[in-house]
Write a structure and sequence with these properties.
This protein is α/β, with parallel strands linked by helices. The protein is built from 16 helices and eleven strands. The longest helix has 22 residues.
Amino acid sequence: MTAKHGNKFIFFVFIFAALIIFDGFITPASASDVPAAEELLASMTLRQKVGQLFVIRPDQLDMKLTFDEIQDPKAQGVKELTEGMKETLKRYPAGGFVLFGKNIAYPGQLKCFTKELAAACFITPLMAVDEEGGRVARIANSGGFDVPRFESMQALGAGGSTGRVKEAASAIGAYIREYGFNMDLAPVCDVNTNPENIVIGNRAFGSDPSLVSAMAGAYLDGLHEQGVAGSMKHFPGHGDTASDTHTGRVTTDKTWDELLHAELVPFIGNLDKADSVMAAHITLSKVTKDGLPASLSEELITGRLRNELGYGGVVITDALSMGAVREEHTSAEAAVLAFKAGCDILLMPWNYAGAFNGVLRAVYDGSISRARLDESVMRILKLKTGIAARAR
């Protein structure tokens, strides 16, 4: 980096640090912000750009933990940011974090931890949590938190009231923001059409595509009301499956036309208000020829979601540590495949350093162009500025 660029870099670090201190977020999106974002991008090092692609578990910063301990929900989780973790973050900068139940102890601890993580990052990170409401609610189900609790999204959806769903999502958005989160990995946009489904079930709003679409849109509206981003999951629809991608390969034999009339309806109906779309690890045997999970398939992410359906926003993978990916690909392979497929955010790889270095090598050897890298980083920066704009 030249002295000129170094000075510019320091200037933007100062500006963003000031914004973080006074607002907790990056400055809101406006016409005047675009050149600043572009100049910031131009001033970032390659490692900082690559880091923006990754949203990880905070446990992955603790080099004393084994990979199995990091992923084990019953193992002790990190609950504060140590000096060693800060050093790891300097070497492997990350664009955001996802906290789980094992990272959550009590209200004061959680507020302190999210604040420490945000302060340690060059650019305000995505602070995410799976707080769908119902059985997947990391904060509400931790105990010791005086927050609203909901039976399930299925129960809310059964009444057919988008108002109730928006109100519930707004309540969820309000309390997760209070605890330092700016992104909820929700709503579940899956259409629950398979009674043997062991993954989705009552996490979905129902079995009618139109109802699910309306409820998912209301959920996003509720989050946005609180300045919180959502993530529509699990594209292209996990509702008509009988196996779990957490443990291994899952395949659906539905055609694209069949998906368009059922599973895809909630996604298509809400792409205009989507902050991000989460790609599932299900394999579509009658849609793609590459045999890859949706999250790693260029045919599906770029060919279908981006080109055919016209979605130009952030695409985030489901956790790359899940069995459907890990049993067939190394962390480096999975990260590179997902990025080449058209994904922007690479969520929770099994081996963070391995995935980071894999993408870095791909940029160095030219298999990932710097222009393609910049494209995704800009999408992520725009997502962050969009969150800040709603939060005001």
